[in-house]
Amino acid sequence: MSGILARILESKRTEIADLRGRRWPDRYAPRQVNLKRTPEAPLRLITEIKFRSPSAGALSTHFGVAARAKAYATAGASMLSVLCDAPFFGGSYHDLEIARNSCDVPLLCKEFIIDESQLDAARAHGADWVLLIARCLSDEQATRLLAAARDRGLGVLFEIHGRQEQALAHTIGAANIGINARDLDSLVMDLPTAQAVLAAVPAHVTAAHLSGLKTAADVEELRHSRADAALVGEILMRQDDPTALLREFVAAAQPS
User: Fold this and answer.
1) Helix axis angle, 139-151 relative to 163-172, nearest 10°?
2) Quick one: which of 77, 105, 128, 150 could link to 47 by a disulfide (CB 3.0–4.6 Å)?
3) What total of structural domains would you count in the chain?
């Protein structure tokens, strides 16, 4: 592991020292979420709240977390992904709680989780699901954290990039798999590999496409693929008001 991901994980190890041993209030019960598609259901759209990223740089801050969460909910998002990393993405667990109190759409805590204390923080701030990233974890960590999340009532989106990580996802019994077309070490997009991995996800597993969507035409094309859900992030975060563009995407996600 090298590059930006190694720097992020080093930052996480420092943060974990502060999180461990903290007692969190039990204000929020995780909600059950089903993103599986049926012939009558649309491609589910997961919209993202993040204010900057190493690959995209600074993004729109015209809407704060509450206003953006409400806009996404109004326009038809099926789930909100909230970045909780501060140093690299400008987010926080507090953003997760603001989103939880601003709309009724289920929430995914998008964080670089390597320790159970992060699961506790996510649950305490209103997460329904958490992201576990295969590239960040050993096989043992992936197995343990998947079980720990389930013990806390949290759903898990298990993010993979290539065939080796896909094998791990199946071995540990991940029920929801996200395929990221972007290599987290190099930040290079590899759509052909992502498409091949997506097509190989078993039918009983929920499959989400996690990067690269920019137009309604992209969403419509993905609707004809194996994907049950898709993350739409950077393109919406470049909009001061994402409502109109997201409505276009939601319309493109409808079954024909």
Assistant:
1) 40
2) 77
3) 1
The answer to the question of residue 27 being in a domain is no
Give the pTM: 0.95
Spell out the SS3 assignment of 127-146: CCEEEEEHHHCCHHHHHHHH
Between CA 151 and CA 201 the distance in angstroms is 25
What is the rounded average pLDDT of the residues 148-152? Answer: 98
Q: Compute the C-alpha angle 72/83/156, nearest 5°.
A: 90
pLDDT digits (tens, 9 = 90+) for 43-64: 999 999 999 998 889 999 999 9
* Domain that includes residue 245, residue range: 3-15+42-190+200-252
Q: How many whole angstroms separate alpha carbon 229 and alpha carbon 245?
A: 17
- Cβ–Cβ < 8 Å for 134, 142: yes
* pLDDT value of residue 31: 97
Run of H or E residues at 177:
strand 176-179
Residue 238 lies in a domain: yes
Tokens 């043992």 sit at which residue? 140
With contact defined as beta carbons under 8 Å apart, do 149 and 123 qualify? no
